[in-house]
Design goal:
This protein has helices at residues 41-45, 49-75, 77-84, 88-113, 118-135, 144-162, 165-170, 175-186, 188-207, 216-231, 239-242, 253-261, 264-298, 313-340, 347-364, 370-377, 380-391, 397-413, 416-428, 435-446, 448-463, 467-478. With 510 residues, it is mainly α. Helix 15 (347-364) packs antiparallel against helix 17 (380-391). The protein is globular and about 70 Å long.
Length: 510
């Protein structure tokens, strides 16, 4: 092939203009670069454009519910601490247990999502998630351990959804249209997170009982399952990129893992996203509590009495900040990246790096400029997902999503809420208790997030070095123009010293 003799794209200068070969047409009439024409997408998938948009809207609604449920707990955290009489370390465990379960189960659903019917997996996962979330609202006061168990089980449903839903969008759209749909899908993360704070705190106030805040998303989850059954039609994997409805050949799980571990753009961008998860995980759980303690330290509000509901004003404020900054950040990230791609093929990781590096100083300033910091942090959500989808072949995308989830949560938000709580408790140890001490201890602990952001920015800068080559290899492999490495069992083994050996019949027949 001609492409084998063209200059390697990774050899281009770091901030160069796009290579001419990005628009080179390869065999079959498709573009070697990212500018694939969207001709015949409806014919290949058998799904009309309006129906595809409806499917994305349903998936976005479910993603919204996922993050609403996840951050409802953070919105009512002072009430949970008061009800169960627990400290910062135990409070941090609520998020840590959920994330730990989520990341352990993600590879299982990633494997299933690459091989089995995705619609059925989604329906089962969301049904289970809704039931467990509803059950967690009836736990008695002396059974905090049971609340931890139910938060862990919630990870089953979310693991089934997060690994599969983006791959369905990838099989419905290509090129810039896919980026726009992913942006719409990932708007649900910051907006859903903010709504979790707002809905949780307001439902608690209306019912005068924090337990009711945990009963909102299960009811909406029933609607989600009905929408999945009636609206979702599953597209063939990778058909829009192959311009054919012929199925792609799945490789073994071990071969998928080997290929992903050698994909430098996937590994480095996942490490960068791990830093994003570390920062957002720590802020998500502790920012409302930080704002609440600042009010106590300055005398602007009264502490919540035992057995009564706490003030929800801080959760409402942080929820609004999260919604607005997420909407601005995700939209700005996709638009900036789309425009920069025209002149720089490494735009995606560079925008992610700029967002993380830019957010670090604002987060370091004790949350004074949290609005700007969260906006810059939100630039990453849709872009990181888009990077994964175009550097990984379709038959490995759910597995790649699952491993990115494991990496980002194992090293990111699985431990960051608990770590922040431990540091805060450690700073308070041996000192006379006061509201000012509680405020400053949490303030100093949250400064760790700024340093994590700088490290993540460095990983995205490294991703920019390899993004072109990995993207092109994935596109050529999807179109059948780049032969994949043979499986060990398919190779011809030449016996040593005349010993006989068994080989597959297909290896010797001509």
């Amino acid at each position: 092939m001609a492409t084998r003799h063209s200059p390697h794209p990774d050899a281009a200068p770091f901030l160069s203009q796009a290579d001419e070969m990005e628009e080179e047409v390869v065999e079959g009439g498709s573009f070697a670069g990212g500018g694939q024409p969207e001709v015949g997408v409806q014919t290949v998938t058998g799904i009309s454009y309006p129906r595809s948009v409806m499917i994305v809207a349903v998936l976005c609604y479910i993603n919204l519910l996922n993050y609403m449920d996840r951050f409802t707990v953070a919105g009512i955290l002072p009430d949970i601490e008061s009800f169960f009489r627990i400290g910062d370390s135990s409070s941090g465990l609520l998020q840590t247990v959920f994330i730990s379960s989520y990341m352990v189960l993600a590879p299982i659903f990633g494997y299933l999502g690459d091989r089995y019917h995705r619609k059925h997996l989604l329906c089962l996962g969301i049904t289970f998630w809704s039931a467990v979330t509803l059950g967690s609202s009836f736990i008695p006061q002396k059974q905090f351990w049971l609340l931890l168990v139910t938060r862990g089980l919630v990870g089953v449903g979310e693991a089934s959804y997060s690994t599969i839903a983006p791959t369905i969008i990838a099989d419905l759209f290509v090129s810039d249209r896919r980026s726009r749909m992913l942006a719409f899908f990932y708007f649900a993360i910051p907006v859903g997170s903010g709504l979790g704070y707002i809905v949780g705190s307001k439902v608690k106030d209306l019912a005068e009982d924090w337990h009711w805040a945990l009963r909102v998303t299960p009811a909406l989850g029933v609607v989600a399952v009905v929408l999945l059954v009636t609206v979702l039609r599953e597209p063939p994997r990778g058909a829009v990129e192959r311009h054919s409805d012929s199925p792609l050949r799945c490789t073994s799980w071990a071969a998928d893992v080997r290929a992903l571990s050698r994909n430098r753009s996937f590994v480095l961008s996942s490490l960068g996203f791990t830093a994003v998860a570390f920062v957002t995980g720590s802020l998500a759980l502790w920012a409302p509590a930080f704002l609440y303690r600042s009010c106590l330290a300055t005398g602007q509000c009264r502490p919540c009495p035992d057995g009564d509901t706490c003030s929800s004003q801080q959760s409402l404020i942080f929820g609004l900040i999260t919604c607005v900054t997420g909407f601005l950040g995700v939209g700005a990230g996709v638009e900036i990246s789309k425009r920069l791609r025209r002149t720089n093929p490494r735009a995606d990781p560079l925008v992610c790096a700029a967002g993380l590096l830019g957010s670090a100083p604002f987060l370091f300033l004790a949350l004074v400029f949290i609005f700007i910091g969260e906006t810059l942090l939100s630039l990453n959500w849709a872009i990181v997902a888009d990077i994964l989808l175009y550097v990984v072949v379709p038959t490995r995308r759910s597995t790649a999503e699952s491993f990115q989830i494991v990496m980002s949560h194992l090293l990111g938000d699985a431990g960051s809420p608990y770590l922040i709580g431990v540091i805060s408790d450690r700073i308070q140890r041996g000192r006379p208790p006061s509201y000012l001490l509680e405020f400053h201890s949490l303030q100093y602990a949250l400064m760790l997030s700024a340093f994590a952001g700088v490290l993540g920015g460095a990983f995205f800068l490294a991703t920019a070095l390899f993004i072109q080559g990995d993207r092109k290899r994935a596109e050529l492999s999807t179109q059948g123009l780049l032969p994949e490495e043979a499986e060990p069992e398919d190779r011809i083994v030449v016996p040593k010293r005349g010993r006989s050996t068994k080989v597959p019949v297909s290896s010797v027949l001509i």
